[in-house]
Amino acid sequence: MKLVVVESPAKAKTIEKYLGPGYRVLASYGHVRDLPPKDGSVDPDDGFAMQWENYADKARQLKAITDEAKGASTLILATDPDREGEAISWHVQEVLRKRKALPSDVQRVTFNAITKQAVTEAMGRPRALDEDLIDAYRARRALDYLVGFTLSPVLWRKLPGAKSAGRVQSVALRLVVDREREIEAFRPQEYWSVTAVFEQDGVAFTSRLVRWKGQKLDRLSIGNGSDAAAAKAAVESGRFSVESVETKPLTRNPPAPFTTSTLQQEAARKLGFSASHTMRVAQALYEDGAITYMRTDGVQMDHSAISAARGAIANRYDASYVPDKPRQYTAKAKNAQEAHEAIRPTDFGRDKAGSGDHARLYDLIFKRALASQMASARLERTTVELADQTGQQALRATGQVVLFPGYLALYEEGRDDEADEESRRLPRMHEGDGPARKSVDSEQHFTQPPPRYSEASLVKKMEELGIGRPSTYASVLQVLKDRDYVTVEKNRFTPNESGRLVTAFLERFFERYVSYDFTAGLENSLDDVSGGRAEWQAVLEAFWRDFKPKTAEVMEQKPSEVTAELDIFLGSYLFPEKEDGTDPRACPACGDGKLALRGGKFGAFVACSNYPECKYTRRFAQAGGAEAGADTGPVSLGIDPETQLEVSKRTGRFGPYVQLGDEKDAKRSSIPKDFGAEVDLEGALKLLSLPRTVGAHPESGLDIVASIGRYGPYLLHDGKYARLQTTADVFETGMNAAVVKLAEAAAGGGRGRGAAKEPLAAFGDSPVTGKPVKLMEGRFGPYVTDGETNATLPKTADPSTMTADEALMLLAERAAKGPPKGKKKAPVKKAAAAKKPAAAKTEATAVKAAAVKKAPAKKAAPKKAAAAKKPAVKKALAAE
What do you get for the CA distance between the two ends of the chain, in Å? Predict the structure, then answer.
C-alpha cells in the first residue's frame, strides 16, 4: 500500500478517487508543526537551530498518518507545489522520522490542478524533496520569528499600547502611513476648466478650451473665477469650426491570465473581495478541481490549456476572434522555482462553477484566462480641434471608436482610476465643419491629494517595491486589520493612532528595517536561497549581526527617553507652524505651559508641562494642533442635591463621561453620542441615575429595567433583553410600551424567526427513508435532506443545476460517514444510568442526573478552540 499525504480532506477525497486501490490518501490539514512561541525556538548561537513543536490540534491527523505509514511501502508527499507546500511535506517527513515510522521509499509529487490527468501524470514522475525551497522556508520562518520575538517586546516595554511588529507587516503599515502623510501635507490648488458642448449630425460631444488669447493652456492655467468668466465669454462670442481632425489607429492587447497578485487586485476592484477572502474562495475552487493552483507568479498557460482556450473561443465567437498564433506571456518572476502556471480553469468547456462568491470568482478567472488568448481589440482614437475665426481661442475634443472588439467582447480589465475623456464617442467630422454650439460652461476645481490605498492598489504597490511575496499579501493585510493598526472604510486604508505611533517608533529607532529598499533586498536574498544561489544560515547571520545589537541598544533606553525622541521626531506633525506665528507648543488652556508628547498606560498623548496644575491633554491622533475633543480636565456641572457631591464632566480613554464625586469608586456614566454635546447638571444626574426601573411586569411581577449598555439603550426583564432606539427612550418608555417591546423581542422582532423555510428544490421521496428529498438554504449554505440525513453541498457546486441523482449520492455519502461527532457521545452518556441501583434513584431522577452530567462535556469545546488558536498566537508575534 502507498500512503499519499495532502493538505486538505477535500483534496484527499478527490485524489483517492482518482488513484483507486493500492493507495491511501490522508490530509495533514495544513502545517502540522511550527516554532513554539517562546524564547529559544531559534538559536542564533547554534547555527540558527530551530526547535519545532507539533500543533496540539493536529495530534489525531498525525496519529492517523503515522499508523498508516508504518504499514506503507511508499510515502508520497503530494502537498501544494510551492514553498509552503514543500515545507509541509518536509515537516510530515521529519515527524514520521522521529516516530520511526518513515517508509524507506519517500517520493515528492506536485500537480498544478486537481484533475485525474494531472494527478496520474504527476504520480508517474516523482522527485525528491527540494532542499533549496525547504531552506528558503526555514530562513523566512526564522527571520519572522527573530523579528517578531525580538522587536515586539521592545515595543511593549517602550511604547505602551503597541501590539506587534513584523518584517513585512511593519513595512506595509509604513506605506499606509506615508500615504496619509502625503494627504495631510497636500495643499489644494484652485483651477478652472471651460468646456463647450457641440452637436454634429445629431450627435452631441464635449470639447475643452486648450488655447486662450493665443496662449496654450494646461490644466492649472486658469486659476481664478474672473479669468474663467472672461475665457467663457470669449468662447460664447466666437464662431468655431473644425481646424484639424487627427485619427490614429490603436491596438489593445489582452492582459495575461491571473497571478496571485493580479487576482487579488481584480477581485478587489470588480467583486469587492478582500485579499484574504479571495484566497479562501480560490482555495475551494482549486480543491474542487475547477481551477489550477492559485499561489503563483507565473503568467503562462500550459500548451494543452492554450489549445483548449483557442477552441473555446472559436466555438463562442467566429474565427476572427482567434489570433493567428497562440499568445505567449512572460513575467519577471522573483524565482523561477516558485513560478508556476497562471491561474486558469482546468476545463475551458466549463464556463460556470459553484454558487455565490465561488461562482463570481470562477467567472472572473474563466473570462480573464479565455480573453488572454483572444484577438487584440482594434480602436480608432480621434482628436478634433475647433478654432474661432481669430485663431486666438481653440477647443479640443477627444474620443475613440471600437472598430473590432476582440477580447473586449468578453473581458475588460478593471482600473483604479476613472476612465478619461478619450473613451468618449465622437461623431464623424471633417476639416471646415461648423458644428452647432449648444452650451458653454466654466467649472471650478481643486487639485486632489493622492487617494488612500485600497487593497488592490496596496497589493500592487507592495509587488512593485518587492515587499513580501504575493502568497503572503492576504495574511499581511489581515494582520494590520487584526492589530487595529488600520481602519478600512469604503475599501480604503486609513492608519489608526496606534499604527501611526508604531510606524514613527520604527522609523526613528529601526529605520533600516522598515525601509523599502532593505526589505526588498532581503526578499531577493531569500529568493537566492530558494534558487540555490545562497546559503540560508549566511543570510540569517548577515541580518542578525546588525539587528540584535540595535534592539539591545533601544531596550536600554528608558520609556521617557523614547517618548522624548518621538516628541522631536513627530514635532512637525503634532505641532505644525501656526499662521499667526505663535508658538505651536503653547498650551491653549493655561497659556504658559508647553505641550509635549507623553506616554501613558493606554498609549501616547499630548499634555501640558504644567501638569498637574494644568490638566490639558490631547489625543496623539489629533494632528496639527487640533483642539476639538481636547481635555482640559474635569468640568464642574454643579452639586447633586441628594448626596451634596460635585457632578463633573470628564474625558477618558473611551470618550466623555460624567462622574459623581472624586472617590476611587465614584459613580460614572458615559455620555451617549445622541445625548448632546453640552451636558448640564440635570442631564448628568439623569445619566447617573441609571438603571431606571420602569415597573413590575403585569404577568411575571418582576421588574422591567431600562438602561444603557455596551451595545446601546435596552430594556431588561427576567434575563431577556429588548433594544431601544435612542437614549431618550431609556427615560421615556412607559410600562405599556415596554411590555410590547419585550414581547416583540421574544417573538424574534415579529419577523417569524421560527417559520419554516421553503425548499429551493424538491426531488421526490427518498428510496431509503421514504421522506421527501429537498434542497434547502441553511445557515452555512445550501444542503440536501431526506428528513433524517443532511448533506451540505460542496462549496463549488451549483444549487440551480442539482439533480435528484446527485442529491441522493450526497445523502448516501453523508450517511456512510455516520452521525455527526456531537451525536456519537449521547449513547455513552447514558451509561451513567448504570449507577441507578447503587443510588436507588427513580427513573426520573436518573434521567435528570444524566442531563446534568452532560454539562462538563460541553466545556471541552472551549479548550479545543484555545488549542486551535495556538498557531494564531505564534503568528501574532512573528507575522510577516
Answer: 40
Q: Residue 706 in contact with residue 723, Cβ under 8 Å?
A: no
Residue whose C-alpha is closest to residue 403's, from 256, 206, 254, 247? 247
- Give the integer Cα–Cα distance in Å for 403 and 813: 54
What are the two backbone dihedrals, phi and then psi, of residue 325, each rounded to the nearest 5 degrees? -120, 150
Positions marked active-site: 293
The 3 state secondary structure assigned to 130-186 is CHHHHHHHHHHHHHHHHHHHHHHHHHHHHCCCCCCCCCCHHHHHHHHHHHHHHHHHC
Contact present, 771 and 259 (Cβ < 8 Å): no
Identity of residue 40: G
Q: 457 forms bridges with which residues in the sheet? A: none
Q: Quote the pTM value.
A: 0.70
Task: Classify each residue of 674-691 as buried b or exposed e, where b means 16 or more C-beta atoms within 10 Å of its C-beta.
Answer: ebeeebebebbbbbbebe
Residue 490 above 90 pLDDT? no
**Cα 473 versus chain centre, distance:** 9
Distance CA 37, CA 164 (A): 13
- Nearest CA to 313 among 342, 341, 349? 349
What type of residue is 69? A
What is the structure's pLDDT at 442? 95
Q: What residues are paired with 198 via a beta bridge?
A: 205, 437
The answer to whether the peptide bond before residue 691 is cis (omega within 30 degrees of 0) is: yes
DSSP lists the bridge partners of residue 690 as none
Coil, helix or strand at residue 510: coil
Distance, in Å, from the CA atom of 29 to the CA atom of 571, rounded to the nearest integer, reads 50
| Burial group, residue 508, by CB count within 10 angstroms (0-12, 13-18, 19+) | middle
Specify the residue for cell string 491629494: 449
Q: Which residues touch 58 (CB under 8 Å, ≥6 apart)? A: 28, 29, 32, 33
Do the strands 74-77 and 105-108 form a parallel or antiparallel pair, or are they unpaired?
Answer: parallel
CB 108 within 8 A of CB 128: yes
**Cis, bond preceding 641 (omega within 30 deg of 0):** no
Please choose, from the candidates 334, 317, 320, the residue with its C-alpha nearest in 3D space to the C-alpha of residue 370.
Answer: 317
Using one digit for the tens of pLDDT, what is the confidence trace for 788-812?
A: 888 888 776 777 777 777 788 788 7
Q: What does each C-alpha distance from 607 to 445, 544, 599, 654 come to in angstroms?
A: 39, 38, 10, 18
CB 278 within 8 A of CB 338: no
633's CB contacts (< 8 A; 6+ apart) are 589, 614, 615, 616, 650
Q: How far apart are CA 351 and CA 343, in angstroms?
A: 15
What integer is the mean pLDDT of 224-228?
Answer: 95
* Secondary structure of 22-89 as H, E, C letters: CEEEEECCCCCEECCCCCCCEEHHHCCEECCEECHHHHHHHHHHHHHHHCCCEEEECCCCCHHHHHHH
348-351 long-range Cβ contacts below 8 angstroms, 24+ apart = 348/305, 348/308, 348/309, 348/311, 348/312, 349/308, 349/312, 350/290
Mean pLDDT of 376-393: 93
